[in-house]
UniProtKB/TrEMBL annotation:
This is Pyrrolo-quinoline quinone repeat domain-containing protein. It comes from the Eukaryota. The keyword Signal applies. InterPro entries: PQQ_b-propeller_rpt, PQQ_rpt_dom, Quinoprotein_ADH-like_sf, WD40/YVTN_repeat-like_dom_sf. Residues 1-15 form the signal peptide. The keyword Phosphoprotein does not apply. SMART domains: PQQ (SM00564). Residues 130-361 form the Pyrrolo-quinoline quinone repeat domain. Keywords: Signal.
Length: 479
């Protein structure tokens, strides 16, 4: 089956070799030279990864949200519940968007036309990433793959392990190394991965593998810009490895939280900091349990501050400037998981001083009680999705990962099916108020109805463009 897929997919290659699920294209030296030059020219993708530009992935953008209006949206032609999206879009230098779904990878033009679709080697619930002309991803069958962004044709497929977790991961690439998770963890919880691996982006060949103390869930590799990679495990433990060799540089277990679980991850700051938002003690992200935000020195992994949060943290930090303070901010979004069989789930958006962890402001959203105690769109879409042969429910965390725009507005999707635009202190709010405006603790937010919940990688930005995918629909906003 793998062999057949490899053979079918390698149409433009001059020769191919498929062995044990691994495909290598053998191309002439001059062709490779031209390829290399072409790739250099496209190294500046505006949103190549779920958390933004690599290296850094601060979860922010210089684009100004309020300058943009809804331009188009995309869902499955038979109806929005006939497919399920994984994570959200990445955006290339030509403003094409790439979105993983239960029915394969979808490439869309800046105006919303489907350019090509790609059947992944095994079901996939991970967001893809861009590296040069490649769209890179991994599947639940433990395969990694590379597709040409222009043609949608396979460049290589590598079998990494017998399987990989069904969680929604955000594998990432930098300096010709694609960092991925594989080998599903089956202890206490099924999902996540035991192994983190570095692959060559041009061939899929494995360079190294690393076994974390605890499984990685929704693995999100972060690149400081040198030859290293950093990430978080599901208890909040953080790691920094050599990007090219997988050698451990440091590793910091989560203080007093070895038995906790979070499906969130870490973020980097421009200040030699790495931030995590996860759960405290034995918290597994449920209502009434505690979360924790931590700031570490990136250079040695030492804990600089810790903030115990009254709600669990199942999300990612965003780092940038918000209104209400000149200091660098880290924004975290505490909130408990969906599907707990109970109403009244609390969620908030907190802007903290990035150097100290002290409050800049807090916005507390109205407690959410979903239909069937599920996220918006999950209960409503389950039967249609079942019939369509895709995963029946999205079961997202409380919030998507937030991003901070060029004017300090925080954007974040919530499981109530709303995009929260949190503007900061009321005194500095220049916009007009209407029925969608909420003020809490002196902080102004506007809610935009997008009907369904979204996963962590929902949001993306490029020059003159914002994009957001819910679990069923991609919305694109343009200038
Ligand atoms: C499973 O749970 C036990 C008991 O809480 C704990 O000691 C162990 O570390 C857990 N394993 C994983 C992989 O989290
Ligand atoms: C691995 O890579 C790191 C980062 O470039 C480097 O500092 C380290 O010396 C390398 N280790 C080995 C054993 O090559």
């Amino acid at each position: 089956m793998n062999l057949l897929r490899c053979m079918l997919a390698l149409v433009p290659a001059t020769a191919y070799l498929c062995n044990d699920g691994t495909c290598h294209t053998e191309l002439s030296a001059s062709f490779l030279q031209v390829e290399k030059q072409r790739r250099k020219a496209v190294s500046e993708h505006p949103w190549p990864h779920a958390r933004g530009k690599a290296p850094h992935q601060f979860g922010n953008t210089q684009e100004v949200w309020t300058d943009h209006k809804l331009s188009w949206s995309y869902h499955h032609p038979d109806g929005r519940f006939h497919n399920i999206m994984a994570g959200g879009p990445v955006i290339d230098v030509d403003k094409n968007l790439y979105l993983m779904s239960g029915k394969g990878l979808i490439a869309l033009s800046p105006s919303g036309d489907v350019r090509w679709t790609y059947e992944t080697p095994g079901p996939c619930n991970n967001e893809v990433t861009l590296h040069g002309d490649l769209v890179l991803g991994t599947t639940k069958e433990g395969n990694a793959f590379a597709v040409d962004r222009h043609t949608g044709k396979t460049q290589w497929v590598t079998k990494l392990a017998k399987d990989a977790g069904g969680d929604c991961g955000y594998p990432a690439a930098f300096k010709d190394v694609f960092v991925v998770g594989a080998q599903q963890a089956k202890e206490n919880l099924t999902g996540g991965n035991w192994l983190v691996m570095g692959l060559k982006t041009d061939s899929g060949e494995k360079l190294w593998e690393y076994e974390a103390d605890k499984p990685v869930w929704n693995l999100t590799p972060l690149f400081p810009g040198d030859d290293t990679v950093a990430f978080m495990d599901f208890s909040g433990g953080i790691y920094r490895l050599g990007l090219k060799n997988g050698t451990e540089i440091w590793r910091t277990p989560a203080r007093e939280s070895h038995d906790s679980f979070s499906d969130g991850g870490a973020g980097l700051g421009p200040n030699d900091f790495m931030y995590s938002c996860s759960n405290f003690r034995d918290s597994t992200g449920q209502e009434g349990q505690q979360g924790v935000a931590r700031g570490y020195k990136l250079s040695d992994g030492s804990l600089q501050w810790e903030r115990i949060l009254s709600s669990p943290c199942n999300s990612y930090p965003a780092v940038g400037h918000v209104k209400g303070s000149d200091a660098l901010a880290v924004v975290v979004t505490p909130g408990s998981f969906m599907g707990q069989g109970r109403p009244g789930l609390h969620g908030s958006v907190l802007a903290l001083d990035a150097a100290t962890g002290k409050d800049i402001w807090e916005f507390h959203a109205k407690p959410f009680s979903g239909l069937g105690f599920q996220a918006a769109g999950d209960f409503e879409g389950a039967l249609t999705r079942h019939a369509a042969g895709v995963q029946e429910m999205c079961i997202p965390a409380h919030w998507s990962a937030p991003i901070i725009d060029g004017q300090g507005t925080v954007l974040v999707g919530r499981s109530d099916g709303k995009l929260y635009q949190v503007f900061g202190p009321e005194a500095q709010f220049g916009g007009s108020k209407d029925h969608a405006t909420k003020v809490n603790s002196g902080v102004v937010a506007k809610l935009l109805d997008v009907k369904s919940a979204s996963l962590h990688g929902a949001l993306a930005a490029a020059p003159g463009m914002f994009a957001m995918s819910t679990c069923d629909t991609l919305f694109v906003f343009q200038k």
